[in-house]
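Help wanted!
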Amino acid sequence: MKSSNQYWKGIDELEQTPEFVESEGREFYEGLPLDKVFSNDDSFRANRRDFLKFFGFSVGAVALAACNKTPVKYAMPYAIHPDNVTPGVPLHYASSSISDYEGFPMLVKVREGRPIKFEPNKEAEFYGGGLDGLAHASILSLYDTNRTPGAQKKIETAYDSIEWAEADEAIMKGLSSAASSGKQIAVVSRSSTSLLLKSAVEKLNEKYGNVVHVNYEPVSYSGILHANEQSFGKKAIPAYHFGKADVIVSFGADFLGTWISPVRFSADWGKNRVPKNGKMSKHIQFESLMSLSGANADVRVPMTASSTGAHLVTLYNELLQLAGSSMVSGPKKELAGQAIKHAAEDLWKARGKSLVVSGSNDVNDQIIVNAINTLLGNYGTTIDMNNHFNGYSGDDSSFKKFTSDVNSGRVGAAIFVDANPSYSHKSFGSLLSKIPLTVSNALIMDETARSCTYLTPDLHALESWDIKEPYVGSYVFNQPTIGPVFQGRQIAESLMVWSGQSNSASGDKTYTYELTKSIFDSKIGGDFNKAIERGFLMSTASASPVSLGVSPADAASKIGARKTSETNLVLYQKVGVRDGYFANTPWAHEMPDPVTKVCWDNYLSISKPDADKAGLKDGDVAKVTANGVTLDSIPVLIQPGQARGTYGIALGYGRMLPESVQNDLKDLGQNVYPMVDHSGNTCNYVISEGVSVEKVEGAYELARTQSHHTIEGRNIVREASLDAYNEDPYVTNHHKHNLVSLWEEHDYSKGHHWAMAIDLNSCTGCSACIVSCSIENNVPIVGRTEIRRRREMHWIRIDRYYSFEVPQAATVHIDKIMGDAEVSEGDYLTEEKKINNYTEDTSDALYDNVKVVHQPMLCQHCDHAPCETVCPVLATTHSGEGLNQMTYNRCIGTKYCANNCPYKVRRFNWFRFNENKKFDYHFSNDLGKMVINPDVTVRSRGVMEKCSFCVQRIQSAKLQAKREDRKMESDEFTTACAQTCPSKAIVFGDLNDPKSEISKLYNNERSYHVIEELDTKPSIVYMTKIRNKKEKSNNHVAHH
Amino acid sequence: MYEPKTKILNTLILLALSGALNTASANSQNMSSFYSESTLLAVIILSAVLLLISGLLWGIKNNLKAMHAKDNPEDASPSIMERIKAKTSHWNPTIATLAIAGILIVVLGAFGYKYGMDEVGVQQGYSPDQPINFSHKIHAGQYNIDCKYCHSTVEKSKSASIPALNTCMNCHKYVQAREKYNDNISPEIQKIYDAIGWDGEAMEYKEDYEVKPIKWVRIHNLPDLAYFNHSQHVVVGNLECQTCHGPIEEMDKVYQFSTLQMGWCIDCHRERGIDAENNDYYEEVHKNMVIDGKDYITVAQNGGLECGKCHY
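Answered by r_m:
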């Protein structure tokens, strides 16, 4: 039964478009073409002779195939067995995440010398013990067939392989001539915290002199850097502690998704999101686009991006007023419902335990943020300037100086280290020809490498040694987990060779090890082996308050003088793709965006009122002009909750990949880095001048999983306000159904009983679990076209639901029978208050204020599983430990189970992805196959598959306990999704173990089963989402 | 009017084929697990009795007919062949051929499945030539070397693992079997030396030698869809290697001793007990284990027959 219109996944569901209604109830979008076969259409008519031909051929072919001899298989043991390797047993090495460039501890799971999966380093508590989707997906960059195989030299337009010695000689000659002509030698790197690189650059400077190290960051945080330099004399990003804050106010900083260090922030944020003693943190988000952080906020108010500064000044003045100080002169700009005033009151009450952050890259905005946090006394508690962050040190102004140096011919040589400015900087590509010697260490031929004279491919991070210093005094170590897959050489070693420190052109395998060890001994000291084994070292000095060394009034008046515009284009990063550096990692692109649920492409996101005005709808294409750059056609996506007048396009797309890439990654999306505004001191990602959007002819279907597997209006999400929860902890979970069962109950009294709890309160929807699960369970990448056909293979998905929130008290017309009704601010619209008959104006306002709930959905491992009873071949059965098992070799692919699953979590495998060259991702080539988990079957086409609760991990943990003759602790292992979850929203364990965390959560007052009225008795409980919001308890669970 | 007939035909053939498949699967090896032998015996006796009765009745009927024909010659019925001809003359030849072919496929298929297909893919007795004529009889039998000395990961891993060359070299640095080959190094041992680069005369490793791993022919080929773990069986289950691999210490050339069919696995899981007494893991987990009829807990009672224990 439809419960209410309370939750909806997309506008098509809300408006109940005919296409949506048609596809809603179908498990399989495309039926079999039976009507065509039985029609009189000649092309489909079965002809008797044809039939007999095929019949005869199949019988013959089967007979012939059966006569074939069984193929002979071989087994090749090691020639010389490495001491620490046991074939069949994984080893875990501590290392550092590849996608978190500044250094982020993680473990690498290695099987027989092959890294097959990344896992969070749970010992590194400071970093949160999680890992995001991109970090997981980036493992494919190791097994990328497109990697540059060895040193290469550009001859005219093509590249030729050369010996390393030859490359070294030529590069050293080039460097010497640059030095002798008095020109600069530039090392252009991504903002690196690597001690190896730092010391190698120093050595290079010793040899040639005039070496400059330019840190370049495609998406920069220069605003914060400069503001902190002016405010506190430290040009660095502080360490933020969201977990210590009772009130968090963010002005457009997507700290749970993309801002600075989202995994650590999510973990920290999650600590204070589960109500304890009636208290939890309050998260207020003012933002223009719908970001992941906004989706998780208690209060989210749309804000025009270009007036962030004005809103910040307004907040500052409100706080000054509360503090009894005199206000600074500057713009005053409130938000809907006096949101800033309310936020100021909340912040003031939580002084010293609050946190204000802003995603703006403007120095003055960030100075006001600093002033606010200083006024609130947050330095030393929630913000730590002493143990500051070293990452993202890339400074726009120094890169600007570098480009002008290049332009005026003052740069004689440039070595690009993981930096790709030709792609992400609009004017840099054309300047490259002005540098006589250009060298790139890129692993794959990227935009910058394409115009470099020498390619000296680096070793992959998994093949390298390194020491990184992400926070002052805290180190993260990198150790090789595999021998070099290609003929690369680590860049630090290359630089040492070019500075005459080493002449290991022949490839001295121990050089970087010795270098790392000597740097460790001189800079850090202590037991090197222990440090490498653990993967990180923490030493945190106590945080102390700091005093503001800059006048906020100046900043406020500068903000006041700034032009603002009602029409803005916001260039943002997507959670899975980030700045686009890992363009060739299909897992990251296959992961649906947590908010829009779009896979693969980027698009123009637009608010509903703006779209209506411009006559745009989902699937249209538009022409966008901003900052003098025009995109001729980009797909349009209507984003509920987006601020009116704001458009958004994601950065990181439109990469130019090596020509050998011929899959969906080729020409993926469009590059909007050229639209970034470089006119100021710092880059501006909010474009407010010359923004125009117009509809053009054409249509483009985005691969979007939003409306796939809808739950057909059933009430499966439960949420309540903190006040209502404090009044009654069982707030949404009172209604119990009288259920009669046809089935016998399973007896779980002996052995284990596996179960899972998913806390909707701490789940941010970041989708790391999706990628982690895919890698653990050999889930294939299906590509854009198959996702459009609703054939994504993910075993776990995250359903994202919107609901409306009435922005202010109003009288609304409900329907003919009920007439008008009063609704008050913060009300949900429920069954009785359908939005269908809203007037236009109100409906626009509604779209500004949507609330979002994320709900991970995976096989519920029901005790009374509907899938089990319909399988004609008993391929899906129940285990004595509560698992719903799927036996692929029994499955004949009737799909009855998927049709009978109320949770829609079964996936049919349509293709032989591991052999089919049409799916040219890692799964179908020999190098990419290295990443396959040998403990999990690679499924063939024609079978149904689904979440197994990581049964391979359960079995292996049990076996280990049995072998070691000991009791098993249920918390000694966990599933891939729970393991990686940054905010610890997923807990897995044994209900029969009274000490386990799951046995405490399973009967928690917030726990409920989804669609429990069907009496499927799932093994997964969800925990009611509690929002820290003042509102009366109007949360009744509507049901049939 | 031709199309509908074709359609019906196609459908019929599909039905017949699926019928054949169903019959085949019902006849499969699991029969014995569903019916006890006494039931089978009862069915056979019953069928025999029924056949006897129908035979008697048929005889009586024929006698009566013959007596009737003697009295009334004009009522004599046509011969059997004539009767068949009269009935089949108006049959559609295509349908008739296909129907007969269909019945034959079903019947022969069922027989084929029962007596032939059952063995497809079973490599019991498989004994291929190996790159080195390694004799388990000499090593494990004559010299009594513990299996685990070479198959050293059998207690730690899913794989027992074929030893690396350096394991061979632990003995064969010195053991060269010259006494059997006129004071020359045994040609089989020489193969190890060639692979790892040992100079048997100078008794030293050759410098910068590119080692070549030995490419053994795999004898025991379990399909990828079945997960098998040696350590589970050897350490936890306390099985001897010989239980599955047979009298390996008597084999000059190794052959596959067991069928490695699922039924073979299952049979053992049904019978064998768990050593719950001596393993602390089971102590806690199986406090409430109900033991029905047996004085020990079988693997099956502990869930050892569940699909998901081996197939994932």
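OP: Thanks! One thing I noticed: The beta strands of chain B are 198-199, 204-205, 216-217.
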